[in-house]
Amino acid sequence: MSGNSDEDDLEQLREERLQQLQDQQGGGSGQSDAAREAQQAQRDQAEAQKKAMLRQYLTDGARKRLNSVRMSKPDFADQVEQQILALAQSGRLGDQIDEDQMRELLQELKPDSQEYNIRRR
């Protein structure tokens, strides 16, 4: 159970950092505190719904693998999450995605890696 606690702690730190950055950037934007709080509440609710759906459709191993990917490639992890949620909402996702299926999905969705051929003459 410590895995979920670690994930929750990590997500809390991410949200706090995001809020700090938004406060720094949007400090002089003229937006009222109430409007900013309402937007934050809306983002928090959307994030909670997304997490609940992912928890429903991913096994623990698949979630751990996705979190590992998030550490090195957060944009790619967001893209994978969106893909999983789209599959789930369209009804094309039968059962939970396990770690092996997650590995295959990551392999399919990863951008083509660039190859460098160095020839010495």
Could you name the key traits of this structure?
single chain; 121 residues; mainly alpha; 75% helix; 0% strand
Describe the overall structure.
- The chain is globular.
- The mean pLDDT is 81.
- Helix content is 75%, strand content 0%.
- The longest helix is centred in the N-terminal third of the chain and has 25 residues, at 2-26.
- It has helices spanning 2-26, 33-57, 60-72, 74-90, 99-109.
- The termini are far apart.
- The protein has a domain at 59-109.
- By secondary structure, it is mainly alpha-helical.
Structural class: mainly alpha
Helix percent band = over 70%
SSE succession: HHHHH
Query: Given the C-alpha coordinates, what overall shape results?
Result: globular
- Which spans of ≥5 residues are poorly predicted at pLDDT below 50? none
**What quaternary form is this?**
single chain
Give a short account of the largest sheet: none
Strand proportion? under 5%
How many β-strand stretches? 0
Radius of gyration: 18 Å
**End-to-end distance, in Å?**
57 Å
Tally the helices: 5
| Average pLDDT reading | 81
Topology, element by element:
Elements (H helix, E strand, L loop, with lengths): L1 H25 L6 H25 L2 H13 L1 H17 L8 H11 L12
